[in-house]
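ping. complex inputs:
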Amino acid sequence: MSKRPTVEQRLYWNETRPDRVSHLDVRDPARCGPCDGRPCVRVCPAETYLWEAADGRLVIRFENCLECGACRIVCPHDNLDWRLPLGGRGICYRYG
Amino acid sequence: MERFDAIVVGAGPAGTTAALVLARSGLRVALLERGAYPGAKNLMGGVLYTEVLASLVPDFRERGAPLERYVARRGLSILSAGAETALSFQTGAWDAPPHNHGYTVLRARFDRWYAGLAEEAGAELVCGVGVDRLLADGDGTTCGVAVRMPADASPAEGELRAPVVILADGVNSVLAEAAGLRPKPRPGHVALGIKETLALPRETIEDRFGLAGDQGVAWTYVGEATGGRRGAGFLYTNRDTLSVGLVVYAADLADSDVAPAELLDRFKEHPAVAPRLRDAEPLEYGAHLVPEGGYDRVPPLARDGLLLAGDAAGLVGASPRPQGSNYAMASGELAARAVLEAREAGDFSAAALSRYRDLLAESFVLKQLEHHRDWPGFVERNPHVFASWPAALTALVEAALRQDGREPQQREAELWDLFQRRVGVLPLATTAVQLRNALRILGYGKTDRLVEYLARNW
Ligand SMILES: Cc1cc2nc3c(=O)[nH]c(=O)nc-3n(C[C@H](O)[C@H](O)[C@H](O)COP(=O)(O)OP(=O)(O)OC[C@H]3O[C@@H](n4cnc5c(N)ncnc54)[C@H](O)[C@@H]3O)c2cc1C
Ligand code: SF4
Ligand code: SF4
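pong. complex structure:
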């Protein structure tokens, strides 16, 4: 317990049945550059979002997503097209 | 195109209860769940409060409900960076059934079992099917749902029709939002729960926590548990696992430089928590939102051909001791009762279905929510209760207990000085009055109600 697992390691504990296409998308990529604090990145417990400063764009690793919905709530510009993965796909909690 | 008497969206506690009640009354009811199985998407702390379940399924224990342990002891710890002040309560009275109606559960197991009961009663449970949108007829009355079928199914889409739909699709009800029934919740009105399930042998759990048989512990942590953010940490004992996690207001996480997973790590490493988790092996990591808006955010609950139940309607008892699964079950049951009455009268209009709100208002659901309607506002206006007071309290306790040969007067002076610097008479008094009013305790009465009514309608 002394060593902290990374988020990636944590996600490996889980059972996930990834969808083929992303259920998450940014509506207007231009809004993310000047977005103050990028709360979607901060709030996501699965590190789904990654700000690529070099290209000035938000990378979405949708396979990480735990479908909690926090990013959708905190985006100040209502800029996330947040949908549910296809039925049966995505996170499958065995304990919950 | 399939026709049903009613369609229920979401096989969580709200939807499954609604489907169970409707199926028992002989209706042809579809229970649609987007997860590969009921519970696949669901996560809570958590303690299931079983009064509603017991009233619907009196023999739930005999029927093999996957209950982990009954709550034999509750605790609250107030943490500073290195210290813990704790309150614990247990009583032999909870050792006898019905165990004060509180059991720890793991939702993936519980929801699956519970949906099985609805199936046995005749509900048609379909998993792996996400509802995409509601179908409306010419005048806007909901008359069914459009679904996306699981991968590789053909056709890829389908439609199901029924004169009434119960939406029990949880806190992220995009369907209720699309129907214009509620806005997207604000970050100050939802909390993010993150949780790990850890494996620990049964005997180790029982030795470590001093438990016998099916006894269990439910422990809440505030203060440093969340790094002073609004919310709390939790630790629950299950049969041979532990549930450990945090619930933190989304607004506070959006402002935070510490990522949620790191907050959880810090909590798990706290000297008051780490020994309780020692040698436990991780099994799962999950996250889920909790609606925290309370009574004043409850949306309209019905419209023509449509009802809203459970988290989708924000029906969570936001209070110092939050609960939701039992509220979800109660609202699912009452939504079903309203549907049965509407069916009797042959009228599924919003006016007829408004009976649902009346039933909720007569039940503990809206009574509790209304009773604690000022709790969300209290939390919003008093962040110091979470941010700085827990550390102040532990500092005071530490100073009071310290053995250093001080004169009694010196000790009192130091305590008073500490109190004035870190809490203060005025802030304590104003917070205490607000807390009294939010919880409606200590002689809260008619005059308070009038003053609050005027303040709210100013
Ligand atoms: C960290 C945490 C701790 C908690 N602790 C407790 C506790 O200790 N005690 C307690 O009583 N409550 C607790 N709660 C609250 C409790 O979990 C919820 O109030 C309860 O689960 C609400 O039930 P529900 O049926 O309304 O929604 P949910 O349980 O969320 O069920 C909604 C269902 O709908 C399905 N669904 C969603 N969209 C669609 C769609 N489009 N098509 C088909 N299906 C769909 C979902 O997959 C899900 O199965 C906690 C919550 C969290 C997050
Ligand atoms: S919070 Fe919204 S606008 Fe800001 S970076 Fe994220 S998606 Fe873009
Ligand atoms: S839904 Fe939750 S887990 Fe998924 S991307 Fe958004 S914040 Fe991250």
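The longest strand of chain A covers residues 49-52.
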